[in-house]
Specification:
The chain contains 5 helices and 7 strands. The chain is of the alpha/beta class. The structure holds ligand AR6.
Length: 183
């Protein structure tokens, strides 16, 4: 299953590179410095160009579970929402709440900045080591709850961008489980 409708918003899963997504904003899985790194963060900085780093320097970092907005510069997306996922430390250090907060705060920023379409990477599931199936349940569950609780949300489309087959399979499984529960 690659699509799920929640209220007036379409959720999709897509395999590919988030830097190429034609949406109003892409979400970056950054670190607290906001000064770049590897993984999707490195790819976004490379594609956006050096102005992105200059803009990030003015933000004074970002706490884990929070989110901050910059322009997208050379990206197709006009904006980047930088959020910092938790490092997985066994699951007993508030990781689930912090990961949910990344999605929640990113959605709030989108709504308060006129952003209708949004793409998320699988935050924390790379270098930060969050177990994939737990992370996708939190990602989709938090987005769904947000949209159900915010009927005035202006977000019409959300893409979960998957860089590999395992991530794609985990999102598809999560979509399927939610659909079955709704049936
Ligand atoms: N498009 C979409 N997804 C991608 C891309 C891409 N171009 N590149 C990687 N991914 P990660 P984290 C996937 O490690 O775990 C950085 O150094 C990747 O396969 O990028 O939150 C930051 O500066 C995985 O599924 O982010 C932090 O220090 C997902 O994106 C740290 O890594 C997230 O993997 C954050 O670690």
């Amino acid at each position: 299953m690659k699509e799920l409708q929640v209220s007036h918003t379409k959720l999709h899963v897509l395999k590919g590179d988030i830097t190429r997504c034609e949406v109003a904003a892409i979400v970056n899985a950054a670190n607290e410095s906001l000064l770049g790194g590897g993984g999707v963060d490195g790819a976004i900085h490379r594609a956006a160009g050096p102005e992105l780093l200059a803009a990030c320097r003015l933000l004074n970092g970002c706490r884990t579970g929070e989110a901050k907005l910059t322009p997208g510069f050379q990206l197709k997306a006009a904006s980047v929402i930088h959020t910092v996922g938790p490092v997985w430390r066994g699951g007993t250090h508030g990781e689930a709440d912090l990961l949910a907060s990344c999605y929640q705060k990113s959605l709030e920023l989108a709504d308060s900045n006129g952003i209708h379409t949004l793409a998320f990477p699988a935050i924390s599931t790379g270098i930060y080591g969050y177990p994939l199936s737990q992370a996708t349940k939190i990602a989709v569950g938090t987005v769904k709850a947000y949209l159900e609780n915010q009927p005035q949300s202006i977000i019409t489309e959300i893409i979960f961008v998957c860089f590999d087959d395992a991530t794609l399979a985990a999102y598809e499984q999560t979509f399927k489980e939610l659909e079955r529960r709704n049936a």
